[in-house]
């Protein structure tokens, strides 16, 4: 990175990363994570480097970051599967290490990989799960029917899961997770691999659940998903929280809120040459090819003209949309994927 981007990014970190903004003022926490660290093995990778965040009761909260950022590890700790190296995590006031059984009763997890029993019917998958949680037969049956209805699977209740499409299996996974009426639901990359229609359907169900008061924590590397669903989002990268705010608050981290992005061929960092267009930041994508962002009100034609006058070859140009993707690139200098 070059140009005067560093100042912008540092601002972003201290503002969004600090706990002084409304972003971290949570009155009634359902999830509290403090200084959470995780190293796998004595010499293994450090997945978390001291993460902090709080999720309010009834909130729909997103953990957003690229592959390997530490999202699944965070979820693993909160769901008592992974032991933290240090730091604390509490669910509904209960420490996840000290009280794993009490935590498990309060949570539901929709895992990244389906672990449905494919030889059973949809209904059986739900009722067996209810039995595991000690639900009475009548309640199990009623709750299963209710959830199959809610997730658009009522007419497939007696069909073996083996025959289900990816979208149907995904919906059944959430339905199963909700059998014991947990107040907190974890969704780990819930729509990865789904077709657009199944994705929309799932988003609607998640929104319904949120409206009905369930606290939901979602991990995703899908910016659109986080933007559309979440009330607040923690962006994580390399095991660190680099921002935490509402989607609108995160967008405000872009200097000036708008700007232009150019892909240029140039020998040296072209950012200083374009400084007259406003605050700039740059990243070398490959040898001699740069991505430069100019924040401010410049027009596309003006930016191209200035770049070409300075000897750069313009390969691509676009107006920044102020999307979370744009914010992520601003904070990290990298694309999300
Ligand atoms: N069981 C494990 N043993 C060793 N290293 C692990 C283990 N699980 C995760 N890691 C490492 O910890 C880091 C964070 O991984 P994690 O799965 O938490 O990230 P993620 O953000 O969920 O990514 P993804 O979207 O790919 O699941 C990575 O470097 C990963 O290789």
TrEMBL record:
Primary localisation category: membrane
GO molecular function, one term: ATP binding
Cellular localisation: Cell membrane
Ranges of residues in domain ABC transporter: 31-263
Pfam families per UniProt: ABC_tran
SMART domains given in the database record: AAA
Keywords carried by this UniProt record: Antibiotic resistance, ATP-binding, Nucleotide-binding, Transport
InterPro entries in alphabetical order: AAA+_ATPase, ABC_transporter-like_ATP-bd, ABC_transporter-like_CS, ABC_transporter_ATP-binding, P-loop_NTPase
Recorded topology in the membrane: Peripheral membrane protein
Superkingdom of the source species: Bacteria
Region entry Disordered, spans: 1-27
Entry similarity comment: Belongs to the ABC transporter superfamily.
Protein name in UniProt: ABC transporter ATP-binding protein
């Amino acid at each position: 990175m070059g140009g005067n981007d560093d100042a912008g990014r540092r601002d972003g970190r201290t503002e969004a990363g600090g706990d002084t903004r409304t972003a971290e003022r949570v009155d009634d926490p359902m999830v509290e994570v403090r200084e959470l660290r995780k190293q796998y093995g004595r010499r293994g990778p450090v997945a978390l480097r001291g993460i902090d965040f709080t999720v309010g009761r009834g909130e729909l909260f997103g953990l957003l970051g690229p592959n390997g950022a530490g999202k699944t590890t965070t979820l693993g700790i909160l769901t008592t599967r992974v032991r933290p190296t240090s730091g604390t995590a509490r669910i509904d006031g209960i420490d996840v290490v000290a009280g794993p059984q009490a935590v498990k009763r309060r949570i539901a997890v929709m895992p990244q990989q389906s672990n449905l029993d494919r030889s059973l019917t949809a209904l059986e998958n739900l009722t067996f799960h209810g039995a595991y949680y000690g639900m009475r037969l009548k309640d199990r049956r009623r709750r299963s029917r209710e959830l199959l209805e809610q997730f658009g699977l009522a007419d497939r209740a007696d069909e073996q899961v083996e025959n289900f499409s990816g979208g149907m299996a995904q919906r059944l996974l959430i339905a199963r997770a909700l059998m014991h009426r947990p107040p907190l639901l974890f969704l780990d990359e819930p729509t990865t691999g789904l077709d657009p229609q199944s994705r929309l359907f799932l988003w609607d169900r998640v929104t319904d659940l949120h409206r009905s008061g369930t606290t939901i924590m979602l991990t995703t590397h899908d910016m659109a998903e986080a933007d559309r669903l979440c009330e607040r989002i923690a962006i994580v990268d390399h095991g660190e929280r680099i921002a935490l705010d509402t989607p609108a608050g995160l967008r405000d981290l872009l200097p000036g809120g708008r700007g232009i992005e150019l892909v240029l061929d140039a020998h040296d960092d072209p950012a200083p040459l374009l400084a007259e267009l406003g605050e700039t930041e740059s990243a070398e994508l490959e040898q001699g090819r740069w991505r430069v962002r100019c924040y401010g009100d410049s027009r596309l034609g003006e930016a191209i003209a200035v770049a070409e006058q300075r000897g750069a070859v313009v390969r691509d140009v676009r107006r920044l949309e102020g999307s979370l993707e744009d914010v992520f690139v601003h904070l990290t200098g990298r694309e999300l994927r």
